[in-house]
Amino acid sequence: MGPTDRTLSSAWPEIQDYGIIGDCRSAALVSRSGSIDWLCWPRFDASSIFAALLDRERGGFWRISPVGPATVSRQYIQDSNVLESHFATQSGGAILTDMMPGASNSLHRNDFLPDHEILRKVTCDSGEVEFDIEFSPVADYGRTKVQIRDFGKLGLKFTVGRGVYWLRSSTALSITDERARAHVVLRCGESMRFSFSYSEEAPAVLRPLDPSLDTRVDHAIEAWQHWGRRANYEGDYRTAVIRSALTLKLLTYAPTGAIIAAPTTSLPERIGGGLNWDYRYCWLRDASFTIRALLELGYWDEAEDFLDWMLQATRLTQPRLRVLYSLYGDKTPVERELEHLSGYRESRPVRIGNAAREQLQLDVYGEVIDAAAQFAFHGGHLDREMQKALIGFGNYVAQNWDQPDEGIWEPRFRRENHTHSRLLCWTAMDRLVRLVERGKLRGAPIERYKRESDSIRHQIEERAWNESMQSYVSVLDGQELDASLLLLSWYGFADAGSPRMRSTYHAIRRQLGTSNGLLFRYRREMPEGTFALCSFWEAEYLALGGGSLDEARQRFAQLMEYQNDLGLYGEEIDPITGAALGNFPQAFTHVGLIGAALSINQREKGEQQLAHRPPAATPHLTSQVRA
Amino acid sequence: MNWLSWLLSGFLATLALSTLLATSQGLGLTRMNLPYLMGTFITPQREKAKFYGFFIHLLNGWIFSILYVLVFEARHMANWWFGALLGLAQALFVLTVGMSLMPSAHPRMASEQHGPNANRQLEPPGFMALHYGIQTPVSVFIAHAVFGAILGSLYQLAR
Question: To the nearest whole angstrom, how far is the Cα of B113 from the nearest Cα of chain A?
């Protein structure tokens, strides 16, 4: 079989044309045309079994698509992660349901479950619809062909490494070379069911494809809805907030509580360019925002699991912290390029692993300490081990805060004195002092932390403020801006309504903003997309007092226009076309959305915002700085 | 028959058998998890099945070792190579006859003829348990040969 035989439609779907399904251990991306183009089993960062997302010819896919032109509309069944695609053709209509049952679902406690499973069901609801079904798995990022064997009524089977994959289908599939195909005409009321599963232990579990499959789908919907509806948010953006929370839950690795940045690798930040990174790992940087979102939405268990994971994962390196960790807290794999893959729309190279693992990013200390402080200020208990770890981090920061580092945006060319890193070092000192003052932390050298906090504040106010630009700047004594400067207010270093912050905000909007309400993270000669998270930071900055409530709402409403039809966001947004760029969906963007929605809602109600931080600056320093 | 010697050697040989099979699974030689397979005779819950299955397997091995000991006594010979030979014979029996009977004997196992249903959802082992990995027979032969060899070495014939 020549490579063209395996080729999916040559047209690349837009990144935002994908939906996600998952089981809190792994995730699959489903295109609008009903093709699963990305799947890594047994966990998010394992090698792929479907990777047409990164190579239409070699990657592998599983397509269930109507033959001929069809209008497609999609939705998640309300407050769940069960995806429905409605195909309307000239001859009739059909619904494709895609989902992955979660192993932790208590309804299934007494049931046999495979390690992982994708359930797909197609039901014709009017007229008749012709479907092409093509199942073309290729292991190891498109490098290893698999041998599919037919085991009669048990289904189709292939093995890769330690895992066995079973495809069960209610319709007969014929095997040609390394793929299974069928051409089926469904009439109104008829349906097809599929179960694709992965098991590492024998005997594997093979689920029947009888109507009990529908019951399982119903149970999964109930379980997701139960979880989603626990969210403690009643504001105007409830639909978007719940979708973001559900997406965040999908990106959580349930066995450890780790939250990955995104389920994909190498979706480009610039089409055809080389800004292609592997995001299937856990960045500590996301900690503070993530904990805030989880705690304020009332997801205490998830917040506690995440905090536990952070403190456990970092145990081997404490008091040093790495920038990112694997799902089990190991060092992430060495970055490699997969030269055999074309990349999404020829965006090469495709990378796995991430070289940021070797970087120094001092801001992560502040993120972790702030996350723990939020947990404690919301009533959580920091046990002795946690306290010891926090003091270790604090002492490291006290010793090293004035070092240059790679900083939040992870450039690969040089270390600099980043204002954002200084801000988070200040945050680390400030939160530790507050934890001690509130009796949540014992044995910390509080006087030293206060001294260092004063020194960092002094340095930021002196050297990160550019008098001629009337703005804080990205690097000490520099002249460039970046959107992370908006976070000076989020962490409580500067009041959002202060003259310096307002002036900085206007400079950022002038230099980094677009007319359609988006923000670049920084200016570079080779442009990339606008950074979705930064745009939500702006909305939140406005809500925190940097602007009026109407301005904050207006900015948030503008950003809502860039979600896809399922309510999902990628890392970046093309400022001209509005298309998603970068890995998809992006946990951090959804965390940013939740944060902005919470702050807007809190301001509407006149509630205290961001309980983890001081209302403005540390009281004993405020007068000194104003002077 | 030397009962005390059987109790001790049978127990140690079964522990070695379990360890070798678990190691084979850990090293990726086979996917077969024998305690899980046995435990699912009595419960569908995975973790409980593994726990119960371990004890069932231990008991099973202990009881099976009586047959070895009876052969040792009948032949008035107990040494490592004779035990290993018996182990290989048992492995051959388990892989051919035992595994082919499994879908009929196991209350939760599906078959190629009928496929899975509400009650039977476990993958059948197939001939020589090859469905559980192409090297499964190798690990089963080795583990049983070691089982027999330990039994043959440690068992003291009755005087």
Answer: 6
